[in-house]
Amino acid sequence: MVFSFSKLMALATLISAAQAFSGDATYYYPNGGYGACGQPLQNSDHVVALASAQYSSGANCGRQIRVNYNGKSVTARVADLCPGCASGDVDLTSSAFEVLAPLSVGRMRVTWDYI
């Protein structure tokens, strides 16, 4: 059976949409720089950088994820790659992180999924 690349990517997207992830959340300050998805990012934007495994060579750019921590959640748009993140980890902008916890927490264990 032969599958085209686009069909395989579509299948991967469907599978990841039904999957919940867990990992560490950290934060960063994009300061108006461009994310790996090609858009300028502000600290006030609720955006996220994903680990390479979930970034999928940019296939998930623009998708929304919901990140959960201690009964709180934040929605963020995939806009960047986090090359230093392990699979399942997320790097949130400071403003998105602060919805979940004070920046002084620094790193926290979260769950997240595509919405």
Which terms summarize this structure?
alpha/beta, 6 strands
Number of strands: 6
Q: Helix tally?
A: 3
Distance between the termini: 31 Å
Percent of residues in helices comes to 10-25%
Helix-strand sequence:
HEEHEEEHE
Q: What does the overall shape look like? A: globular
For the residues shown, what is the average pLDDT? 91
Radius of gyration: 14 Å
Strand order of the largest sheet: 1-5-2-4-3-6
**Uncertain runs with pLDDT below 50, 5 residues or more?**
none
Secondary structure category = alpha/beta
**Proportion of residues in β-strands:** 25-35%
**Main pleated sheet:** 6 strands, mixed, barrel
Descriptive report:
With 115 residues, the protein is an alpha/beta fold. It is 21% helix and 35% strand. The chain contains three helices and six strands, in the order αββαβββαβ. It has helices at 5-17, 52-55, 94-100; strands at 20-28, 47-50, 64-69, 72-81, 90-93, 108-114. It has a six-stranded mixed β-barrel with strand order 1-5-2-4-3-6. A hairpin with a 2-residue loop joins strand 3 and strand 4. It starts with a helix and ends with a strand. The mean pLDDT is 91.
